Amino acid sequence: MKYKLIALDVDGTLLNDDHKLSPENREAIAEVTRQGGQIVLCTGRSPQNSIPFMEEMGLAGYVLGHNGAATVRVEDREVLHIYGLDARGLDPYIDYCRARDIHYDVNTAFDMYVDNVANLTKEATFMYEHFRITPASLPAWEDFREPVVKFTVFTKSDILDEAQREWSTWTHLYNIVRSGEFFVDFMHPDASKGNALMNLASQLGIAQEEVLSIGNYYNDISMLTYAGLGIAMDNSPLEVKAAADAITGSNNDHGVRDALVKYCLS
């Protein structure tokens, strides 16, 4: 098989709009694995709520979570690499969100914290239930025992657009990426899906031209451009499609299956 390492985004790529894994995608992934390809999930999700998809597919290996800020081994959940960010530098952004009643969360490799878990809005509660993750209340920075790897802002898209315009005028220390219509993620400046995928490929002795990646959103661009073959989903924004080498079907039409059959199994 030409491609030895296959990196898949999760939401909007591997999963359909109901956040389900289709039998068609599952079967294609199983066949790629049988033929020697290694699947890695490269996602904005936490390892906590992305590893279960690897287990559902019967896969070992790795998850590149939090947009590449945390690389975790599936079998024992050992954190192999993290990009820890400057948490205290988040204070102005937290003040901005609090002043405008914008929801945010703070993430370590496996844990998530919100301003006050007792005061979650219905929208935030639904989101966390939907993504199968349970947040705790945010402690003081000095009480953290593990590095913070991601800060995520969640709100309506127009409010998020305005916030990004405002933040673009600030001096900041982070890689700030739009990871969904309603989400913006802050990470260490070197944290990205592309860098995490490059590091993993190097550790596994896999050449860049032997890496294939599939994604659908702005936070996927770095891994699409790193991979020997970067494939955008048909449901991607135009800028993401422009960064890719090829386009496959949408996430609701088993686009991952189609790409794997065409480029890995033919």
TrEMBL record:
SUPFAM superfamilies: HAD-like (SSF56784). Coiled coil: none annotated. This is Hydrolase. CDD domains: HAD_Pase. The lineage of its organism: Bacteria, Bacillati, Bacillota, Bacilli, Bacillales. PANTHER family: HAD SUPERFAMILY HYDROLASE-LIKE, TYPE 3 (PTHR10000:SF8), PHOSPHOSERINE PHOSPHATASE (PTHR10000). The keyword Hydrolase applies. InterPro entries: Cof (IPR000150), HAD-like_sf (IPR036412), HAD-SF_hydro_IIB (IPR006379), HAD_sf (IPR023214). Keywords: Hydrolase. Pfam families: Hydrolase_3 (PF08282). One of its GO terms (cellular component) is cytosol. GO terms for molecular function: magnesium ion binding; phosphatase activity.
